[in-house]
Amino acid sequence: MAIKDLPREELMHPGAGSCPACVDLLALRMTLKALGPKTVLVSPASCTASVACGYPKSPFGVPVLTMAFAAGGAAASGVVAALNRLGEDDVNVVVWAGDGGTYDIGLQSMSGAMERGTNYIFVCYNNEIYSNTGVQRSGATPFGAWTTTSWKGKVEQRKDMPAIMLAHRLPYVATASASYIEDLYRKVQKARTIKGPKYLEFHIPCAPGWRFPMERTIEMGRLAVETGAWALFEAENGKVEFNLRSKQILDGKVSRRPIEEYLEPQGRFAHLFRPERDEEALAGIRRFIDGEWDRYHQLATCGIAVG
User: Fold this and answer.
1) Nearest CA to 284 among 126, 181, 197, 157?
2) What is the pLDDT of residues 163-197, one digit of tens each?
3) pLDDT digit string (tens) for 33-43?
């Protein structure tokens, strides 16, 4: 679907107090277009909850339940149970959580809801940090990135949450990027049609937290995909299929751009380039990404579901 063909109805209205050029709310706007008005949004503590859910007002045209950091999956389970009791089986229940509320603090309740087979969509909008609370590291923060709690650069690699969700044997797992909005919209639409627990993870560059100019937000998202730092794929019942530029990379039709093109414009990686290049750290990042793509290739060509 082309952007010009997206629904005209808006379920997200002006008034959210987000940063300029924030693609979290762009992705959420497109998600609501894909799902329609019969949607209940569960928003654990996050940027979204802070800037868009100031009681008693909300910029959303759907009900929103603002919930504690750790309780996204549990809250959604309760909403689904209540709707089932009312006989309302055509309402989309969606958790919209940051990486902190997914990878770390919210992992146990999300995993529990997935294991129980709750019929809902869990969306992680991944900006790779605890952005709203002061740019602390999370389990999604990549190796080498500066944060206020890893001020010499994070020394651990990020978790692979999509792989963890594949290990839950979900009917649908997908990654997307706010810089490829048609792909994101299509995957939300597909998740809407599938019964059971679904997991979507959206890559959301954060200009203030990553320290790059706000007008480059969409460019940063595209560079992440083109350098292989973020892969676009979907998996129905464990069968992995790659999309767009990521599929071209996997098939060998195009090469990954040098990872430095993605890292160097971001102030959070400035210490890897100035006053001199940290070749050892950059080589480690390349090795990690190479290893990820080797594993992706196995998943896509052999049909092996993680777990």
Assistant:
1) 157
2) 999 999 999 999 999 999 999 999 999 999 999 99
3) 999 999 999 99
Closest to 264 in 3D by CA, of 245, 285, 249, 292: 285
Number of H helices, E strands in the chain: 11, 8
Q: What's the CA gap between 67 and 52, in Å, rounded?
A: 13
Would you tell me which CATH number, out of the four given (3.50.50.60, 3.30.1360.70, 3.10.520.10, 3.40.50.970), belongs to the domain 3-302? 3.40.50.970
**Residue 44: CB atoms within 10 Å:** 29
**What are the Cα distances from residue 288, in Å, to 28, 133, 150, 284?**
30, 28, 19, 6
Return the higher-pLDDT residue of 50 and 161: 161
**Residue 117: closest CA among 160, 84, 140, 88:** 84
User: What's the mean pLDDT in 246-263?
Assistant: 96
Q: Looking at residue 303, what is its pLDDT?
A: 58
| Of the candidates 255, 257, 230, the residue with the CA atom closest to the CA atom of residue 243 | 230
DSSP element (H, E) containing 193 = helix 181-193
CA distances from 30 to 3, 35, 181, 231, 275 (A): 10, 9, 8, 20, 41
Are the C-beta atoms of 99 and 111 separated by less than 8 Å? Answer: no
